[in-house]
From TrEMBL:
Domain (BTB) ranges: 205-242
Protein name, as recorded: MATH domain-containing protein
MATH domain: residues covered: 47-168
InterPro entries in the record: BPM1-6, BTB/POZ_dom, MATH/TRAF_dom, SKP1/BTB/POZ_sf, TRAF-like
Pathway field: Protein modification; protein ubiquitination
GO BP terms in the entry: protein ubiquitination
Length: 242
């Protein structure tokens, strides 16, 4: 009796799926249907938003020209970050916004977007987006800087209070996991009909029926298989009585 083993594999969740060599197997002298093992590459990300309020912005700008202001640390994706504002060096200069990685001895990949909020009107500026970049603690990535002019700041400042929104997306390193194969054994096709055919050839019909003078013959084993009544009659206690 041949048994065929079939391996069923799950689908990969992204385009980073690679295939290994196919494996041959056999069971009960029959070759098994084999498919290549697979692995799945997944990338996880985390998002977070921080609001940084700067009260007395004009005073900061005049007293601390050319210096920077940092927000409190906030956590996104398992890392600590801060929003840094580089104040204009001169009147009418540009304000620079920057995302900093604070976690010590760490490196991360992240993208971010800045915009101003006016709490009184609910208005918000357009977003200044920073693409996905590599960040390292203690280092400033100049590509992560965005600049805006003072008139844009004054448009969204309310009662000399500036609110900066920073939306951060941290992208973790890809992970590759093996997809476990699930084996299912297919039942071989039934040989019952073949066995029954051989029995009928060897034993023939061994039961005779008389129906209104017309005689019919049939194999007892077939009647027993199809009818509980005949099964009891031919192979049960009734057989001894008969």
């Amino acid at each position: 009796m041949a048994v065929v083993a079939r391996r069923r594999l799950g689908l990969a969740r992204c385009s980073c799926t690679h295939h290994g060599a196919s494996v041959e197997a056999s069971s009960y002298a029959a070759a098994a249907d084999s498919t290549a093992p697979t692995s799945t590459c997944t990338v996880e990300s985390a998002q977070g938003t921080h609001l940084f309020h700067i009260a007395g912005y004009n005073l900061h700008e005049h007293l601390r020209a050319g210096t920077s202001i940092c927000s409190d640390p906030f956590s996104v994706g398992g890392y600590d970050w801060a929003v840094q504002l580089l104040l204009p060096r001169r009147e009418g200069g540009a304000l620079v916004l920057l995302l900093k990685l604070l976690t010590k001895n760490a490196a991360a990949r992240a993208s971010c977007a800045f915009r101003f909020h006016n709490p009184a009107t609910g208005a918000a500026s357009a977003r200044w987006s920073v693409p996905l970049l590599h960040y390292r603690s203690g280092l400033v990535n100049k590509r992560a800087q965005v600049s805006t002019f003072r008139w844009n700041v004054l448009m969204y400042a309310h009662d000399d209070r500036l609110t900066v929104e920073c939306a951060v997306t941290v992208v973790h390193e890809p992970k590759v996991s093996e997809t476990k194969a699930v084996f299912a054994v297919e039942e071989p096709p039934s040989e019952q009909s073949e066995h029954l055919g051989r029995i009928l050839e060897e034993e023939g019909c061994d039961v005779t029926f008389d129906v209104q003078g017309e005689v019919f013959t049939a194999p007892k084993i077939v009647l027993g298989m199809r009818s509980p009544v005949f099964k009891e009659k031919f192979y049960g206690p009734e057989m001894e009585k008969g």
